[in-house]
Amino acid sequence: MLLLFSLPIGVLLGYMSGGRLSGIGKLHLRWLVLVLASLLLQLLVFPSLFETAIVPFATSAFHILSYALLLIWIACNAKIAPILGLGVGATFNFAVLFANGGYMPTSITALERAGYEATALILQQSGRYSNLVLMSPETRINFLGDILYVPEWIPFSAAFSIGDLLIALAIVWLIAKGMRIDAQGARRTA
User: What is the DSSP letter of 24?
Assistant: First the structure.
């Protein structure tokens, strides 16, 4: 849900710097189908739109695959500076997921403060829920797990990782940068 904040903030900063939405199309991002495939995989295996996952098997494998597709897309677009920032965040998330068998270690405190008490309870009782695993001394690279949170009183509150934060900031940067492409071209012709 953190990514939902990135879009309007990126557009706002783009407009504030004299940009136009039409500039985003001039970024020349290649292989966007990989991003769509990555998002689709995550929508299918995580109970985000529905109470249960649409594809309730091989969750960890599909989660790792979704990040692998995203990292391939980042490599294909690495000449665009914000994509490199996105790559750092995605690499952090991929590392912690891979180290924990495809699951994201999650802090109970972060979940509770984000207003996800029911998820926190399920995680405490079963140790795993969806793509989450209860953060403990047995989980690896915990500092890259879901330890941060948007408080529950803010719409779209969530627990999230440092990698998620870096991805969100890179998306803001990418949108603002893209919006300025068209504005810079318009200034040259005027």
Answer: G
CA dist 146 and 171 (Å) reads: 19
The structure's pTM equals: 0.87
Query: What pLDDT, on the 0 to 100 scale, is given for residue 46?
Result: 76
For residue 57, the model assigns a pLDDT of: 74
Amino acid identity for residue 160 in this structure: F
3-state secondary structure of 16: helix
DSSP string for residues in 79-119 = TSHHHHHHHHHHHHHHHHHHHTTT-EEE-HHHHHHTT-HHH
Count of the separate structural domains present in the chain: 1
Nearest to 71 by CA among 84, 80, 53, 60: 84
Q: Give residue 175's pLDDT band: very low, low, confident or very high (50, 70, 90).
A: very high
Q: List Cα–Cα distances, 147 to 31, 81, 96, 104, 126, in angstroms.
A: 32, 27, 12, 10, 19
Task: Assess contact for 190 and 24: CB atoms under 8 A.
Answer: no
Other C-beta atoms closer than 10 Å to the C-beta of 42 total 18
User: What's the distance, Cα to Cα, between the start and end of the chain in Å?
Assistant: 40
Q: Note whether 109 and 139 are within 8 A (CB).
A: no
In single-letter form, the type of residue at position 135 comes to M
Predicted local distance difference test score (pLDDT) of residue 48: 62
78 lies in which domain range?
A: 2-189
